[in-house]
Amino acid sequence: MKKWIKALPIVALLFMTVVAQAEEKPKVIRIGGGGNSLKIPAASGASGWVNDQGLLEKEFAKDGIKIERTYYTAMGPGQNEAIASGLIDFGSAGDLVTVVGRAGGLPYKIISTSGAGGSNIYIQVNPASGIKSLKDLKGKRIGYQKGTYLHLAFNRVLEAVGLTEKDIRGVNLVNADAQAALATNSVDAIVSSSDRPLVDQGVATLLFDTRKYPQFKSGPGSIFVTEAFANKYPEITKRVLKTLLKGYYWASKPENQEAIIQSSVKLGGTYKHIKADLIGALPPKERYDPTVTPKVLKDYQEIIDFAFKRGIIRRHYNVSELFDLRFQAPVLKELGYDKYWVH
Amino acid sequence: MSKRKLTILVLGALLIGNANLRAAETAETEPRQQPVSDSTAVPFGSEDLSEKDTSEAGGNVSQAELDGVRAEIATLRDQLTQRLDKTIANSKRSLSISGSTQTRYSVSTSPNKNGFLFNSAILSLKGYLKRDYEEGKSISYTLGLGSNTSYNLQPTDAYLQYSIGQSLDIDKPYLNVNIGQQKKNFGLEATTTEDKQPAINLAQFASKLGLSARDIGIRFYGDLFPVVDLGYNYRIPLIEYSLGLYNGSGPNTADTNQDKDIEGRIVINAPAGYYSPYRGLALGGSFYRGKQDLYKGTTLITKGEGEAKKIRYGTDLSYVSAPFGFTAEYVIGKDEKALSGLTLANAVRATTESKGYTVTLFYEWGEQFYKNSRNQSRNDDWWPTTFQPFLRYDHWDPDTAVASNESNITTLGFNVFFAETTKFQLNYSISDDKAVNLKQNTFAAQFQFGF
Questions:
Q1: In whole angstroms, what is the distance from residue B394 CA to residue B286 CA?
Q2: Distance, C-alpha B362 to centroid of its chain
Q3: Are the folds of A2-117+220-339 and A122-216 the same?
Q4: Which residue of B has its CA nearest to A82?
Q5: Are A272 and B58 an interchain contact pair (Cβ–Cβ within 8 Å)?
């Protein structure tokens, strides 16, 4: 009898293994991502490398599972709509988008970050506006796209100098329209990502950018999966994440940085600006660290708090609702990356 | 400004001169700013932060390489100039050209007839006359030319649109005005754009009561209390409203009387976020009141002066949340007519009340109606092929005081959206017009395509 009890854990383990092996398999894994300005169906950086190498296809070929990728030009909001409509299983987006999506009830969870680097924001001003400091933004016409990481980061910058969005005249403009509006003096300043030809042309001057104040960069981006998929196919979810993290490991190597830049250029970026955007950036190993650390969770909770306080989301919630931590730690350990990205 | 124009602006800046290249050469001689890491972040404050861009241009460029780039730019400039002169159409203001055509084959019983029909062709020109980037108080124009089964080309839309209120901030309400010949804004059936109309034919009341006809006038429309779900770029106002004043004489016709017809509509939308089961739920109400010529039967009494009352009331309920859709609309019409007399003075008048209603159910397989799914990074002519079966019941009673004169049409249909501006429609209709004791079944297949 005692021997039988002692063997129970082994039997249970074997049973779990059998269950895991018997896990139902999807016919297709649908992966969403952000599109690009040239409308080329491809990604850059870590995801781009995984795609180019066909790592997901190779991983799941033996199971007869097809990989289906969709690149949404509306970026994060596009993927949110796809999740809401049941069109994708996995996706990757910025910090605010997933925070807003989850606040609205979207049934997905973040299973990894897409690197700890975050994204820069730039505030360009019309020289005729008389804006010399961030405080001078008060009462001015500022163009930026709401609902994006630019919106969130700009709010934080304003708050740091004692202003809020109500103190400025915010104009909701997508990047191309914002550039045109600044050039025609229709707005006094714009908040943009790395693309800033107007500064190069002497039309605008750079008032502020987060390369010098990295505390205002966006938070880490996210890799998410629908709750339904993760619960139905936990082993498949783990294998997808494992494959994607190989991409982050590759992207974290200094010798691959030029290849990453070149892949971004092919998708519509400007070489000069991509290089310039890296000034002050974290070293590659830290920049592409996907680990969900307590700091990442704290950052996301702050984003939730801030977004709720500013009325960007209408429901406040705990960050634990947004993350599913079942998968990443075992995967990092299996790959040996827990010894590479040590926390 | 569109991305294309911005690209031309940037290209133009490159073509105008090599000032930037020279600036880059100069920048190389200036001391480079050291990168700043997290640990050495500059203390944050409100000090003067204006300064030159710190971006770096990369490695040195030789004179030969620079000459090569200049030569390439000069060649590109010449090619562009030649194309602009010879093969690229110009307009004084921004211009977007679009159009749509319908080609149909139908078979009907009682009487037996069949044939091909090219039943509609519309060319539409749109653009901005004045673009306001600050608040979006822009002025735009729309000019449409259309031909129907009579094959006469006539103006359809011809109006100016001005955004009276701001139109850039999605958190705030919108207010616009249209001036000119335009569609009236009554109910769902007569105003829903063709790409969202499941059935080939409009409900009977839309044409019988003149709701789908355009008119000349002025219409104010806007919304209040918008709900914005930033996670999806989704905006839905709690209230939408419209108030119009028209000649009431129909399209391409001068006013025939001193009175103006007035029309109003209000829609209450469920103030729900995108991922809410209530998204797409709306309740609407419409009215139209005006004057029309007085007739006794088919005899015109008022000779174009417009003396008979014309009133329309309608209410509609819709729940359109892909992949499921339901719409219902109920309309009452009141038209004054002469029972006897041949002059305005001795005419004995009576009001005819008519009513119509329609109920439509549809379902979709495919992503045609998901906004963001249509906008993907693809390098082919991909489009989310979508299949949409639907069922519609359409009732029309031209005079509620007369028994057994209704007309009922039940339509079973199947739409296939297989390209961005093209759909193929199959409709099978069973109709029963009791007024003329005519029952017939009709099968129609139609391509609706545009550019």
A1: 19
A2: 21
A3: yes
A4: B373
A5: yes
Written as six digits, the tokens of B133 are 């980037």
Cβ distance A301 to A309 under 8 Å? no
| pLDDT in the model for residue B252 | 92
Report the distance separating Cα B346 and Cα B348, nearest Å.
6
- What is the assigned CATH class of domain B96-450? mainly beta
Cis amide linkage into residue B111, ω under 30° from 0: yes
Query: Which of A133, A143, A200 shows the shortest C-beta gap to B20?
Result: A200
Q: Do B134 and A141 touch (CB under 8 A)?
A: yes
List strands edge to edge, sheet with A108-113: A66-72, A28-34, A90-93, A222-226, A108-113
CB atoms A161 and B169 under 8 Å: no
From the list A186, A180, A182, the residue with the least C-alpha distance to B134 is A186
Residue B245 DSSP one-character state: E
**For A43, nearest residue in chain B (alpha carbons):** B377
A100 and B229 within 8 Å at the Cβ level: the answer is: yes
Q: A122-216 maps to which CATH number?
A: 3.40.190.10
The side-by-side arrangement of strands in the sheet containing A169-172 is: A169-172, A141-144, A189-192, A122-125, A205-209
Q: Do B230 and A146 touch (CB under 8 A)?
A: yes
Model ipTM value: 0.82
Residue spans of the domains in chain B: they are 1-22+66-83, 96-450
Tens digits of per-residue pLDDT, B75-117? Answer: 888 888 888 888 888 899 989 999 999 999 999 987 788 999 8
What is the residue extent of each domain of chain A?
A: 2-117+220-339, 122-216
CATH fold of A2-117+220-339 reads D-Maltodextrin-Binding Protein; domain 2 (3.40.190)
Q: Is B285 exposed, middle or buried (0-12, 13-18, 19+ CB in 10 A)?
A: middle
Q: What stretches of B131-213 adopt beta strand conformation (E)? A: 139-147, 154-163, 175-183
Instruction: Determine the residue type at B103.
Output: T
The token duo for B93 is 């203001």
**B5 chain-A contacts, CB cut-off 8 A:** 180
Contacts of A26 (CB under 8 A, 6+ apart): A65, A89, A229, A233, A236
Calculate mean pLDDT across residues A109-116: 94
From the list B133, B233, B322, which residue is nearest A147 (CB)? B233
Chain A neighbors of B278, CB-CB under 8 A: none
The H helix count followed by the E strand count for chain B is 4, 18
**pLDDT averaged over every residue in chain A:** 89
Least CB–CB distance from A197: residue in B10, B230, B378: B10
**Interface touch B231/A106, C-beta < 8 Å:** yes
Nearest to B133 among A160, A177, A282 (CB): A177
The maximal CA–CA distance of chain B, rounded, in angstroms, is 98
Write the pLDDT tens digit of every residue in B323-359.
999 999 999 999 999 988 888 888 899 999 999 999 9
Of A81, A208, A271, the CB nearest to B274: A81
C-beta atoms of B170 and A106 within 8 A: no
Shortest Cα distance, chain B CAs vs residue A260, angstroms = 16
**DSSP per-residue codes, B77-90:** HHHHHHHHHHT---
Find where tokens 């109606």 sit. B369
Helix orientation angle between B3-16 and B63-86, rounded to the nearest 10 degrees: 130
> Structure pTM?
0.82
**Secondary structure (DSSP) of A236-288:** HHHHHHHHHHHHHHHHTSGGGHHHHHHHHHHTT--HHHHHHHTTTPPPHHHHT
Gap between the Cα atoms of B311 and B213, Å rounded: 15
| Amino acid code (one letter) for B279 | R
CB burial of residue B365 (10 Å; 0-12, 13-18, 19+): exposed
